[in-house]
Amino acid sequence: MAALEVSIDKDWMRHKLSIFYASGDSKPADDEATGFDTVFDRPFFIGGPFSFYSHQGFNLAGTSVNFKQRDSLVIDFRTS
Predict the structure, then answer these.
(1) What whole-number distance in Å separates Cα of residue 2 and Cα of residue 44?
(2) What is the pTM of this model?
(3) What separation in angstroms does the CA of 6 have from each of 9, 10, 35, 41?
(4) Which has the closest alpha carbon to 2: 25, 26, 20?
């Protein structure tokens, strides 16, 4: 997992560039787990609680499986 946030101020406006990378398990069928999940899901990245992507959870249509939990950056496929 890696995160980078760069900003530059120009007069009264602040331009930001945010990059977040999370790798998963390359071979999920073998008996070795190399993926990860977060311990605390309260990100202060890409806008924190004011960001739509961070604040909202998304579920797979017609199922009870959440694609991404509310207030989290990573995708985890947890059931609700």
Answers:
(1) 14
(2) 0.48
(3) 10, 13, 27, 22
(4) 20
Q: Which residues pair with 5 in a beta bridge?
A: 18
Token pair of 15 as six digits: 């331009």
Alpha-helical segments (H) within 21-66: 52-55
Two tokens at 40?
């605390």
Work out the burial of residue 43: count CB atoms within 10 Å of its CB; fewer than 13 is exposed, 13-18 middle, 19 or more buried.
Answer: buried
Cα distances (angstroms) measured from residue 52 to each of 26, 33, 45, 46: 29, 31, 12, 10
> Which is it for strands 2-10 and 58-59: parallel, antiparallel or unpaired?
unpaired
Query: Using one digit for the tens of pLDDT, what is the confidence trace for 7-54?
Result: 899 999 988 888 877 777 677 677 776 666 666 666 677 666 666 666
Instruction: At 29, list the tokens.
Output: 């069928």
